[in-house]
Amino acid sequence: MNASTALELKRIEQHFHYLHENPAVAFEEHLAADYIAGQLRGWGYEVETGIGKTGVVGRLKVGDGAASIGLRADTDALPVEETVDLPYKSKIPGKSHTCGHDAHTSMLLGAAEYLAKTRNFNGTLNLVFQPAEEIMAGAPAMIADGLFERYPMDVMFGMHNMPGLPVNTLHFTGGPIMAAVDNWEIVLTGVGSHGSMPEKGVDPLVAGAALVMSLQTIVSRNVAPMDAAVVSVGAFISGDAGNVIPQNATLRLSVRTRLAETRTLVLNKIRSITKATAEAYNVGFEFREGPPGAILVNDPSHTETCCAIARKTFGDNKVFMPGPTFMGSEDFAFYAQKVPAVYCFIGNGDTPNVHHPMYVFDKSNLPVGAAYWVAVAEHYLK
After folding, report:
1. What pLDDT does residue 131 have?
2. What are the Cα distances from residue 41, in Å, to 36, 57, 200, 370?
3. 195-238 pLDDT, tens per residue?
4. Quick one: 138 and 86 in the same domain?
5. Which of 289, 324, 356 is the last residue of a domain?
6. Is residue 347 part of a domain?
7. How far apart are alpha carbons 104 and 370 in whole angstroms?
8. Domain termination site, one of 268, 289, 310
9. Full-model pTM
10. Is residue 95 part of a domain?
11. Do 133 and 58 belong together in one domain?
């Protein structure tokens, strides 16, 4: 992609500034969806909105080629107050693009405009602008809404920026690269009482405290050291006053696993330890399980191909394989369960991590990401 002209770079940056200033959280990305749809229509794409609530798909068919691919960007922001005083700072209190999804969308829009103008490909290009990645719900929503039935794809591609990796570099790894996440709640039910008479009640708070500690043994004593898993209790909600034995205690868990068999082991251990603890403390228990997690697995062959495309485009010193893997999670994993897929990372340099209120996307990545998308599209749709 010849994205170095002032006009092209300026337009990508304009997309980025607009989206950054106008963030919206999961399934509220109406403004972004309207903006994306308007841009794509102006460049000649067939556009459908409302897929998976606030998702947008733009399709451009050129020539008679049978190949069909998908390029995906995420559009949602976080409920985080941005604390960096940028000239294009978020205008929405308490919400910000502190994960870089605005940049992902802008890079794909930059590639979309270039590909529509040059049409240097033969086949069908599907651009998927997905909502609600942060709550792991956007990809399942688009799939359930018939994404692949409406837009068949031979292979699908995704990308995410990553602080801590050198800026303007691309990183590829075949096989599992990001963990499954299972977000659960455990509700313990006891019998409330006056704080001076605990014997008259059944204390779910004490049971919950014991359960928090017991859950920490799952990884340390059941998961092999060479494997990886995380069981985090991020919230423990019980009681309002020091002189009241509460009626309930709620634990909110974030569980991360990288292998399917480890996921089964860890979730079953959570169930059995909770049951045993509840029985020991004479409290009731209820599991509120979130959507099933999915491990993000890159297709090895297509990952090799994408790495070669990137090296040809940017040079060997800017492309790394194998790259790092992470215990974070991505709902792109659900696409990869349906079609062969490749997900890569673009380095964001030495910045605060994603989701941090002082995170800043390095804008020098905008043309790099757009150029990668163009190179992938032109290669797969020869």
Report:
1. 98
2. 9, 11, 68, 19
3. 999 999 999 999 999 999 999 999 999 999 889 999 999 999 99
4. yes
5. 289
6. yes
7. 9
8. 289
9. 0.91
10. yes
11. yes
pLDDT in tens, 282-312: 999 999 998 888 999 999 999 999 999 999 9
Domain that holds residue 98: 6-177+295-380
Q: Please state, rounded to an integer, the average pLDDT across all residues of the chain.
A: 96
CA distance 381 to 361: 30
| The predicted structure's pLDDT at residue 4 | 44
Q: Indicate if 11 and 144 belong to the same structural domain.
A: yes
Residue 279 in domain: yes
3-state secondary structure 106-164: HHHHHHHHHHHHHCCCCEEEEEEEECCCCCCCHHHHHHHCCHHHHCCCCEEEEEEEECC
Of 161, 11, 13, the residue nearest 73 (C-alpha): 161
What percent of the chain has a predicted confidence (pLDDT) above 90?
A: 96
- Of 51, 263, 36, 256, nearest in space to 139 by CA: 51
Are residue 97 and residue 204 in the same domain, yes or no?
Answer: no
Tokens of 341: 């897929």
- Here the tokens at position 37 are 């749809």
Amino acid at residue number 220: S
